[in-house]
Amino acid sequence: MKKCVTQLQEKQKGVVVEILGGLFLQKRLDAMGIRVGVEIIRVSLPSFKGPVIVSVGNSQFALGYNLAKKIIVEI
User: Fold this and answer.
1) In this model, does residue 49 exceed pLDDT 90?
2) Which of 24, 40, 44, 65 is most solvent-facing, going by the fewest CB within 10 Å?
3) pLDDT of residue 28
4) What average pLDDT does the chain have?
5) Which residues 6+ apart lie within 8 Å of 14 measured at CB?
6) Beta-bridge partners for 40
7) Could you tell me the pTM of the whole model?
8) Per-residue pLDDT, 44
9) Are 40 and 3 in contact (CB under 8 A)?
10) Mean pLDDT of 15-32
11) What is the domain range of residue 33?
12) Distance (Å, rounded) from C-alpha 15 to C-alpha 74?
């Protein structure tokens, strides 16, 4: 089942299958370790259009809501 990162529940995992954005966005996320094929975990509780905290490997990042909507994962 495919969802965007904003639709994940707390501590739910998904594997990135698509990034909806141009080359600049893909490079920006790649610098954080977020790329197709990587497992991502939502750390924060679902909030109404607030920042989304995700864990990738040993790192945690706070992503803006609109940026997180562009990361599509397979659960």
Assistant:
1) no
2) 24
3) 94
4) 94
5) 3, 5, 8, 39, 40, 41, 73, 74, 75
6) 14
7) 0.92
8) 87
9) no
10) 95
11) 2-74
12) 5
Token pair 């706070």 is found at 62
pLDDT digits (tens, 9 = 90+) for 4-21: 999 999 999 999 999 999
How big is the CA angle at 25 (ends 18 and 19), to the nearest 5 degrees?
Answer: 5
CA–CA separation, 2 and 75 (whole Å): 6
The CATH number covering residue 10 comes to 2.30.30.90
Structure tokens at 74: 């397979």
Provide the residue type at 26 as one letter: Q
Q: Where are the alpha helices (DSSP H) in 5-70?
A: 23-31, 65-68
Task: Give the side-chain half-sphere CA count within 13 A for 5.
Answer: 33
The total number of structural domains that make up the chain:
1
Smallest Cα–Cα separation from 7: which of 36, 61, 39, 47? Answer: 47
Type of residue numbered 17: V
Asked if 5 and 32 touch (Cβ cutoff 8 Å), the reply is no
